[in-house]
Each structure stands twice: as C-alpha cells, then as structure tokens.
Amino acid sequence: MLLKTVSQKTLGFSFLLVFLFFIMCASVVYGYTDTSWSTAKEAFTNFNGSNEHIILQSVRLPRSLIAACVGASLAVAGVLMQTLTKNPLASPGTFGINAGAGLSVVAAATLFSVGSLQAYTWLSFLGAAVAAIGVYCAGSFGREGLTPMKLTLAGAAIAALFSSLTQGLLVIDETALEQVLFWLAGSVQGRKLETLAGILPYLVIGWIISLLLASRLNLLSMGDDVAKSLGLRVGAIKIIAALCVILLAGGAVAIAGPVGFIGIVIPHVTRAAVGIDHRWVMPYSALLGAILLVAADILARYVIMPQEIPVGVMTAIIGTPFFIYIARKGFNAK
Question: Name one Pfam family in it (predicted).
C-alpha cells in the first residue's frame, strides 16, 4: 500500500482530481485537427464560429466527458464485481455483462430497426441483467456451489456465446454492421453531449449508491458468515450492488460500446495504492478509471493518424498483460 495515512490519501485524491481535469483538457486540445491551448480557451470564452472552435465545443468536449464517465463507471463496476464474487478477474468484460448489453442493442438494431438512444439504454440494462443472471446461475451449478474459478469459466462461456450471437446478427444485416461495428469495438468517437445527458442520471445513481455501500462492502469482503454475524443483510447488499453493476456497465455500453479491461485493471491498481478500504477504493477507482480511458482515447487518435483506432483496442493493449498477470497470481495462490 503506497498511501497509508488519511492525509496521504486525501492529498493523493486531490492530485488525481487535478490530473483528471488536466488530461480532459488535453483531450479537448489534441487530435487530428491542429489546435492549441489558447484556441481551446477562446472556444469557450470567445466563440467565433470557426471550424476549430466548433470541433472543440461539439466534438472533443463531449468525447472527453463521455470517456471520463465511462471509465469511472466501468472501474466502479469492476470493484463491485470483484468484491461480490471474491474473484480477482471479475469485471463487466470478463463476465459477459458487456457482451450481453452489446447483444441486446445489436439485436434491436438488426431485427427491429431500433435506433433511439433511450431504447438502447434500456436494452443495454436488460442485456447486462440477463448476462449477470446467466453467469451467476451457470457458476452455481455443481456440488461446490459458487467458486471464483467456476464464475470465471461461466463468464467466459457467456461472453463467447453472446459475442457469437452478435456476430451472427451482424452477418445477416450488413447495414447494421456498418452502423455498429466501430461501436462494438468500444469507442467514444462521434458521441454527442445529448448522448451522455440521456445516460448520465443512471450512472450518477450507480456512483452514489456504490459510495454509500462502501462500508458495508468492507464487511462483506470478510466473508458472508462474518458479515451476517455483524448484522449485515448480505442478500440485500448483494442485490443492490448487482443492480449498481447493471446500471454502470449497461449505461457505459449504451454510450461507448463494450470497452474492456478497465474493470479489471483499475481495482487492483487502486488497492495497491490505498489498501482494501472501499471508502477509499471506490472514489479512487472512479478517478483512475476516468484518467485511464481519457488517456487511452488520446493515444488512440495518434497511433495510425490520420485514422483512429477504437479506444477499446487501446484498453485491450494496456489491459491484456495485466489480465495475464492477475490470472497467474490469483489462481496460483489457490
């Protein structure tokens, strides 16, 4: 644990908050269209209708805000899932929740020609819920009941199933393929503030409830029996936390598609920095998740410029080695 005292953690949190603001500003400034910090300042203080000012206000600012919100949501969802399942590999991506949300949106677009954001939102939540229930049920089969290994295998199976069904639907409808292919890779490009405004209330609810659950999650992490002996209503807490995961992961997928690895990487980095107290893990994870996705989005603009790669590809490049490390460390210890 790098930060041990309350003052150190408070100072670290303040630093991350300032750094997040700085990197979001950098996200607004840097990209294919050459702009400067002074141009960005003028775009918001003395708008003149120029092409650069329009890009800064209507393209890059929404992109920066959406990346920060999606990154924070996926990171907090990862913390909740790892605590609930006691599985170091748990995340919306590895447990098929992102894939379930993505499948529901693609199915609606291909089979029923649904195109409204509000419909996508509710369909994402529905798909995320179906995937979460499916993984839990599949991982509970057998004499040993629910175990981290069985949950991981069940999550991989559900993710593979839903991804295959998604690809099958896209093969049937080539028009829908053109519309959602970039979205399926995970991207915040081309999103508008109206898109975020429609999803943000659900994300905020998920963030607030997750923070309120922090002290109870500390008890839950000690084991169900210990938590029950201390008066915790374990079943109710798990249901509420699961609903938060569905809100956060479903909302994030509705905006940006199934962005992976944020939910795995960030909780482990946060615990290494501030320990296992969820009262610190939750807010730190939210900030670090936002920073990581905004930074990944900036890098995604420059790798093959003038073209861009989806930010989901960048998070996969960053997260895959970490996933392998956690998998070896987590399961070798058992």
Answer: FecCD
